[in-house]
Design a protein that fits this description.
The protein is an all-alpha fold. The chain has five helices and no strands.
Amino acid sequence: MAKTTSTAKSAAGSKQAASQNNESKLLNKFFVDGLKDIYWAEKNLVKALTKMGKKATSEELKNAFEKHRTQTEEQVKRLEQVFDIIGTKAVAKKCEAMEGLIKEANEIIEQTEDNTMTRDAALIIAAQKAEHYEIASYGGLAQLAKTLGKNDAANILAQTLQEEKDTDELLTQIAERNINVEAAQETE
């Protein structure tokens, strides 16, 4: 009887291990898909930030967009490091969310007048929408990396997460210092 119980426990343990292995495979697939998504987002955001910087009015905002564009290029390289760490080829998968946010930023440029603080205020909001998407993505991906035991990847993703939070805060400060106040005084 003891032998049968031991065999039954062993079989149950094997089923549980197989189930956990399948779950980690599913979670790992979801993690890799998320990396591919944010990789596409970052690569396309580099182009969008270049355009937004050229269309901004204030030098402070132009400089902030240029700084973030350079930082985003580094973030793309870091994502490539994460792909290397996890042994997966760095491949971009179209990010519908970022595509929509970039499209919205382009519409803002078309719908606002050149050389106005109103455009700058609108560009800041568009950029912050992208930042908030990135913050959510990197926060989730960093946590998944930890859960999957990919601590080196988690640390890299956490570094980028902090940069995204810092950029969001900087954009808020730029808006509060003078852009929003000046935009409120503009007339048609």
